[in-house]
Predict the 3D structure of the following.
Amino acid sequence: MATIETRTSDTGEKSYRVKVRLKGYPPQTATFERLTDAKKWAAATETAIREGRHFKTAEAKKHTLAELIDRYTKDVLPTKPKQQEKQTQQLAWWKDKLGAYALADITPALIVQYRDELANGDTCRGTIRSPATVVRYMAALSHAFTIAVNEWQWLEDSPMRKVKKPKESRGRVRFLDDGERQRLLETCKQSSNNWLYLCVTLALSTGMRQGELMGLKWPDVNLKDGFIILYETKNGERRRVPLAGHALELLREHAKVRRLDTDLLFPGTVHANKPIDLRKPFENALKVAEINDFHWHDLRHCTASYLAMNGASLAEIAEVLGHKTLAMVKRYAHLSDGHVSNVVASMNAKIFG
């Protein structure tokens, strides 16, 4: 219950000190110049405490967004090593723009204002940020707010819940046609880098990400049964990658001349414990093959596209690429239209004869 104590100063001015006591909660006090304000605060505070809102609101007034981001960066980001560097940079942007605000004063409208500034601002390369990049910045801040709400009890609710994310494009689908693929593989064979052809062939046949491929170690490769086990993947899950055909034969040949001073399949020339950098040899090969608008990651799109065109389902493509959901592979759906038509025709034939 609430008690109100009237106080009179030396000059004769009155003030009203309110103390709210509820069993199981620490007492709350405040002082007002008007009795009506004191009564309103007492009633509102009692209700907020009973509904579990008061202390979260008080915490939100005590902490700034800068404090939230600093604590999140120190305590939470180290548990996300693959995202730590990128999200530290993203959160630093929000801290620079909104860090001085108390959490209680950060509204959805305020976040929208800076979301739009982020979307219209230039990157360090002088280009406009894509919707996908803006979404990543928002996701980093959103998770920080979620931790502050659920674990630290600094907020009653996250203001990010009411902020709309920019719509992302369906995603790039650039794959090599038969002529381009043949030209690229030929130029890779002729490259001064002896491993370029093998690495491009492996990327095309397995769909492994560049980081996964370059980080391969011999203990994780089973040449007898034809598979690779990836322990360090983007989604954090272990993945079994099948090896077959030409890629498997090339890798078996490569194993005969492996270096003994490192477990890496493709170690660098200077530092044996760091993977080789194939960026320049690959760019040169693309130039000689006269292939434009193509990047190493597009080799992964090639794998998915070829699988789709050879009748693989979206679920099978997702499993090969290591995606948890089908959302990321729906961009290849149009390439398997013929396969879908055959499935429907087969089903109709069985049902109706």
Notes: The two ends are 79 Å apart (CA to CA). Residues 131-150 form the longest helix (20 residues).
